[in-house]
Amino acid sequence: LTTPKLVEHFFRHEYGRLVATLSRRAGVQYIRAVEDAVQSALMSALETWTIAGLPDNPSAWLFRVAHNHLMGELRQRTARRRILEQNAEEDIGTPENAPEIFLAGEVRDDLLRMLFVCCDEAIPVESQLVFALKTLCGFGIREIALRLFTSEANVYKRLGRARSHLRKHPPRPDDLAGEQYASRLPAVNTILYLLFTEGYLSSHAETAIRRELCDEAIRLAAILAEHPLGQAPETFALLALMHLHAARMTARQDGSGGLLLLEEQNRELWDRHGIQVGLEWLAKSAQGDSFSRYHAEAGIAAEHCLAPSFKDTRWEKVVECYSLLERIAPSAIHKLNRAVAVAEWQGPAAGLDVLDGFEPPTWLAGSYLWTAVLADLHRRCGNAQTAKRYRDVAFESAPTPAVKAVLQRRLRIGGPA
Amino acid sequence: MPKRNYLCIQRSQPGKGEKPSPAQMQEMYAKFNAWKQKFQEKIVDMGGKLKGGGKIVTSEGATDGPFVEAKEVIGGYMIVSAESMEEAIEVVRQSPGVWMPGSSVEVREISTS
Fold it and tell me: Which of chain B's residues have a Cβ under 8 Å away from the Cβ of A1?
């Protein structure tokens, strides 16, 4: 007796593929019915395959079953509606008579199309993200809530907003012609970037869960970069930054799951192959005139990846990239990061100078990041009193025990000031 | 000890429990296969899942049923071979039939005398 093994994430990725294909065929307005049909097909697969074994082509099997489910459901709806409206001529559409939404020369990849469909600027960004996680990545409601640190009710609400918009304003075949796609590319890149940072910056305790989000972002970005529509310097830079960050992910934790600072990381653990792939995308992203925030961020990540040690980092280059980033995407966090890099390059006093007279926005002022950096720079400048004041606040506002532990080490809490 | 066969009848409460996510399904698939492999010697007939909407036949004829409104519906069956009821229970206890919330499995020895 053999136990047929399925590839990792098979069910989740099939879910995404089937939802994308079937909603292209039936129309995105039927997304709910499509998702129900796909869910049923996966359940049937689970029940049948465990007893009868795997079919020759599991993907084709799933497609057939999901397609039949959907057709049955849509036919019933049409029939119900006809009875209600007494011979209404209007047909809500079934997979057989729905217009083919893609035309020759347009985006052929259903997943990619779905990604562009969900990046509709009329849908709030947080709803786009939830919708992408549900439909493209195949995560369940609870799994999304867990990953985004929000409630299940909130996930339902965000999902509902995206679905109701798509139901009321389903993309027409000609709506998503090449030009429309091109204009949505920045929004698509933003969603992929968010998906990645949700995983990368998350304070979630489980590395596997964070890694999964990063891998999903890389998977979708790679599909995008393979297509002529996605082949823009921004997309390449985005992929570069994802690879250059992901390559160092495992080194960010010690054996017991504690966080490690960049200077504490064992650089031997960095994934050299991943870094290589990232650098190749970075080189590709430089072909063209555009310089996006992704370029700046990938540039910073590349400097760290290429540095033999923390001390030997080309801090002047890092500072330069942060300055560019601040100009392209103004944010107080970039200024704070620049101050840290300047401190490594020209000393802690120079770092403090960057922040001199700067009033951080409330979200940053209340964050441990702001107070921890000030505590560190003041300590290194010998301002023991000020340093102590900041480090107490930083320690208090640290969101997780892992972050508290890092602060304790970095800010010498309990040790000599 | 001679082996005896036991009929295992799985019941579930309709509408109980959330639908599993694709990732959970993949986990269930792996667990099911591991269970099947572990007890392959003891599983006489994997049985299967029963479709809804059957008929109830009496000498008077056939009527529709069982209805989904019922509190519990029989969802599937299988036959295991074991030396004792305790052994049969162990096979079932580890089986997928009892994983879902609200599901239960009835184990009955098939009489040969």
Answer: 36-37, 40
Taking an 8 Å cut-off on Cβ atoms, the answer to whether B23 and A12 are in contact is yes
Helix (H) or strand (E) holding A22: helix A10-26
Closest residue by Cα to residue A402 from A267, A242, A201, A241:
A201
- In tens digits, chain A (417 residues) has pLDDT values of 455 678 888 999 999 999 998 888 888 889 999 999 999 999 999 988 988 889 988 988 999 999 999 999 999 888 887 776 654 444 444 444 433 433 333 345 788 888 888 898 899 999 999 999 999 999 999 889 888 878 999 999 999 999 999 989 887 665 666 777 778 899 999 999 989 988 887 766 677 778 888 999 999 999 899 888 889 999 999 999 999 999 998 888 887 777 788 889 999 999 999 999 999 999 999 988 889 999 999 999 999 999 999 999 999 999 999 999 999 999 999 999 999 999 999 999 999 999 999 999 988 888 889 999 999 999 999 999 999 999 999 999 887 788 888 888 888 776 654
A102 contacts A117 by C-beta, under 8 angstroms:
no
Choose among A1, A50, A138: nearest Cβ to B29: A50
- Mark yes or no for CB contact A6/B29 under 8 Å: yes
Give the minimum alpha-carbon distance from B48 to chain A in angstroms, rounded to a whole number: 7
Contact assessment for residue B111 and residue B103, using Cβ atoms and an 8 Å cutoff = no
> What is the CB neighbour count within 10 angstroms for residue A158?
24
